[in-house]
């Protein structure tokens, strides 16, 4: 609290916080209650034109801090005074003592934004408000740690807790019994944590009996960070630990390695909510299309091996693996006509998987973290043939998939001998490339790459390929025109694309409000084991398991299933007849399980009777009063962009005979788990659950 109070009347670490004035203050006689109200002057980072139209240079907020030393709580309320008739902003923060450990601080934050009108710039104001809000959250922890350090430098390492005056003690002892007052405590480094996600509850210190150093769950070893992850600030390290912990709680047995989690965090500037969203989507994508096994199970067609002018070639000066692509010599039209879009995409995915493997190898060889590779693209020979529309379409899709699933893997892109037609291609593809990735592009026209600031700054002379004037023989195929005799018809390519798309053990299903998706499993022998593995790709669902002695009617695809975007999946099948009654025609054999968006669920059920078992994924409606916290702004915005009555699940089920089952999860090894190869080794503890337990 003392560190927090030092932010006023102004804070040099918050440039937008210009000044503040105390407009009202109250203290109780025993000093247990302290309420202070301030008027804060802010210089919002907004376009000058918008400020001119609005007629203001600064905006004013009113902040009310209510401290209750007796209850050990601090409530902070803030609302805007400027333009309050056009924009309504409310924010509430609350610091309390954890009920189970008084050395822990609970932090809860919620905010709301309502833009009624703003001179036609409502969308701009919303973006500015969101940007400012997230910026303040990220900065909060750094600020509080700065002032905690300042207190320590002044010799203040502990603060006595408030105790009631003697008179108050005597009076209170005659009326009721109070909880004994704890003695003064030291202020740990993590005693106060700000800059956390909305509605997040953090344990900000450990009890003395718990290990706090060298354990991967709460702190990363400094040598480990330096060796495998690179320089991380305390805030970045904290984000990595928190995201990994969340994955451990929701994705049992398939936690990506720290290096991979870190890539997604860096791609979203260490915004945990955004990184978590794209990481979950990527893990689901990898699992559905079995990307983890692509290097072991997929052999590129001979056409690709002969005419795809790309390959790995040593490493750059920073130790990054070097990939060489002679795009100008490649017949993109011929490759698309001979192979189709899906085969090209799969080949690019195999290249990226190989890149991840080479990064791990180079990390071991060079003794420092290497998490990305360098790509050298030679455009000599690029012409209008390369701008063939289906070829550009395939390129854009490849870029989209790679951007979504391999973030922060491109360390540098060297584009050499860019011809006059290159700006046309760049105009087409650049909007699909992330801003951070675009900053890594270096483009050289003609022979500029041979001069100062050119290729020699990034690649050792000894490994410059021969076709670029170097002395190193490069084994990358030279490309050339694909013979038309290898072209395939549109129908053949379409069938091949569908085959590649559907090569997965997982099925996709759409779940709608009032239209669950159901899967029928017939059991002949009692004590068989039904196992399942599913991911909730979108929305929240309720998972149920039912048993019936009689078979339901043949499944009918619900008409709503036509809304599914995925061509081979997205089914919606309903089996339970509307006239069936629970308890008479069928019974529930497991308690309903509520599964949130992004969660991965694995479990099993030992059947007690033969008959028909129905696995059901049902739309989950959140009751209006189910939570006291306001929804995250990100969630609200996302709900505006997608249907609020549609969920998606990706699932796999298998039945194991009773003779193969021995009552523990270790005997479920015959089940195709599809766990990610990016994961570290699963600990033995995750395999010790009982067979009837549903594990997330």
Q: Which spans of ≥5 residues are poorly predicted at pLDDT below 50? A: 168-218, 557-569, 624-643, 661-696
- Report the biggest beta sheet as strand number plus sense, adding barrel if it closes: 6 strands, antiparallel
Class from secondary-structure proportions: alpha+beta
Query: Oligomeric form of this entry?
Result: single chain
Mean pLDDT: 76
Strand content: 15-25%
Secondary structure tally, helices: 17
User: Which strand order spans the largest sheet, edge to edge or round the barrel?
Assistant: 1-2-3-4-5-6
**Rg of Cα set:** 30 Å
Binned, the helix content reads 25-40%
- Number of E-type strands: 25
Calculate the terminal CA-CA distance, rounded to whole Å. 38 Å
Give the arrangement of secondary structure elements.
Elements: H1 2-5, E1 17-27, E2 33-42, H2 48-54, E3 59-68, E4 73-80, E5 87-97, E6 105-115, H3 122-153, E7 158-159, H4 166-175, E8 185-186, H5 222-229, H6 234-250, H7 258-267, H8 272-288, H9 294-297, H10 302-307, E9 310-315, E10 321-325, H11 332-339, H12 341-366, E11 373-378, H13 389-405, E12 410-418, H14 422-429, H15 435-438, E13 441-445, H16 490-502, E14 507-512, E15 517-523, E16 529-538, E17 541-548, E18 556-557, E19 573-574, E20 587-588, E21 593-595, E22 600-606, E23 611-619, H17 633-641, E24 646-656, E25 694-695
